[in-house]
Amino acid sequence: MSRRRPRVHRFWVHPILRKCLQRGEYHVLVQELRLDDHLFQQYFRMSKNVFDELLGKVGSLITKVDTHMRVSIGPAERLAICLRYLATGDSYRTIAFSYRVGHATVAVIVKEVAGAIWTALVEETMPVPQPEDWRAIAAEFQEIWNFPNCVGAVDGKHMVIQAPANSGSLYFNYKSTHSLVLLAVVDARYLFRVVDVGGFGRSSDSGSLRNSAFGESLRDGSLQLPPDTVIPGAEQLGLLPHVFVGDEAFPLLDNLLRPFPGRHLTRERRMFNYRLSRARLVVECAFGILSSQWRMFRRVITTSPEVTELCVKATCVLHNFLRRKTIGRRSRTPLADSTDEATPTLLDAPRMGSNNATRRSIQLRETFSSYFNEEGAVPWQQYVV
Fold first, then answer.
1. Can you tell me the distance from the alpha carbon of 177 to that of 201, in angstroms, rounded to the nearest whole number?
2. What is the DSSP string of 20-51?
3. What is the C-alpha end-to-end distance of the chain, expressed in Å?
4. pLDDT for res 341
5. What pairs with residue 153 in β-bridges?
6. In this prediction, what percent of the chain has a pLDDT beyond 70?
């Protein structure tokens, strides 16, 4: 059996790469883009002021020391390379040619900078919710989406990846692709409050919830949710818990509502399904904004699962970091008063999740259904259902 001959390196640094300071994309194009904030926004998915602010937060974590052998790549260029990968999903080699650095260097930079972004921003943009945070989320769901005692919408997103070596069917999902699962809880203003990344593609949404730290906390009651409260105007319904809303793939729990299953439903149950679906749309919209802004989600991700997990977590905190700067300029969500008859009601939902619900969970769903058909009815729901 012939052995592969070792590769002989002709250059310590290729002559083309030595010209990165004169012709590399960061030192030429990016500097020109700083003169036009609109183009800079399109290139990095953020303004130059926000880029500089982000650099101030992560710069100390990604700065390298110069050696006698070579000059290190500066933190601004390292951040630019990572953001460009997240914004486009281009291959490492494509970005390496543009920035005139080695493709292995790009791989190291993306991994390190993505991890640094998560470390630097997670406490600021995605802290562990406390009882007062859950109350504020519930108040916004009531104000914007007319859903009382709701503390978040939960759903899973499959991110298509290249099948890892020797992984078998672990990452093979129901869409006949290989994927990692992002399980997220989103508030009324499309901000990620809890994320769990790394679930195998073969797992259903219910299985991803069951195997996640969030799902475990939901089951054992350690999420620090506010105590049960009375809905104003519906005191006769008694104390009701604070709940998350999910689609038909999730189980029905005391603190997790899912729609009524089946096709032949009463008008009251279809009304409940519409109101729940209307509140649950925030997580679908958040995923849409995420994948529209960070185009790596629209391609087959070819990195290892570990690096993919770091990149996904980085985009989630970047999503919150950027949206918090725009929320103050918006007084109301455009979809809040939508009367579009195309709004899904989940009447014809094709998937069915495990639903080993307790009697209390079933009764709680019936109570919420009664509220949405009587005291909590909104004027336009009669024309939608």
1. 8
2. HHHH-TIIIIIHHHTT-HHHHHHHHSS-HHHH
3. 71
4. 35
5. 186, 245
6. 90
Question: What is d(CA 334, CA 144) in angstroms, rounded to the nearest whole number?
Answer: 10
d(CA 54, CA 368): 43
Task: Name the more confident of 358 and 59.
Answer: 59
Other C-beta atoms within 10 Å of 225: how many? Answer: 21
Report the half-sphere exposure of 72 (CA within 13 A, side-chain side): 11
What type of residue sits at position 186?
Answer: V
> Which structure tokens are listed for 324?
């918090």
Q: Check if the beta carbon of residue 367 is closer than 8 Å to that of residue 240.
A: yes
DSSP character for 169? T
What is d(CA 233, CA 238) in angstroms, rounded to the nearest whole number?
11
Whether this prediction's pTM lies above 0.90 is answered by no
Instruction: Fill in the amino acid letter for 374.
Output: E
How do the domains of the chain map onto residue ranges? 17-125, 131-384
> Which secondary-structure segment (H or E) carries 256?
strand 256-257
**For 330-367, what is each residue's pLDDT tens digit?**
544 443 333 333 333 333 333 334 446 789 999 999 99
* Helices of type H across the chain: 20-23, 31-33, 37-44, 48-62, 75-88, 92-99, 103-125, 131-145, 205-211, 213-220, 267-293, 305-327, 359-373, 381-384
For residue 44, the number of C-alpha atoms closer than 13 Å in the C-beta half-sphere is 31
For residue 241, what are its two tokens?
Answer: 């818990």
Are the CB atoms for 374 and 366 separated by under 8 Å? Answer: no
Cα–Cα distance for residue pair 379/381, rounded to 1 Å: 6
Selection from 204, 337, 322, 335 nearest residue 281 by Cα: 335
- Average pLDDT (217-242) is 92
Place of tokens 């809880």: 185
In the chain, what are the helix, strand and coil shares in percent, each to the nearest 5?
50, 10, 40
CB 352 within 8 A of CB 251: no
| Alpha carbons 263 and 346: distance in angstroms, whole number | 9
How far, in Å, CA of 329 to CA of 109, rounded? 34
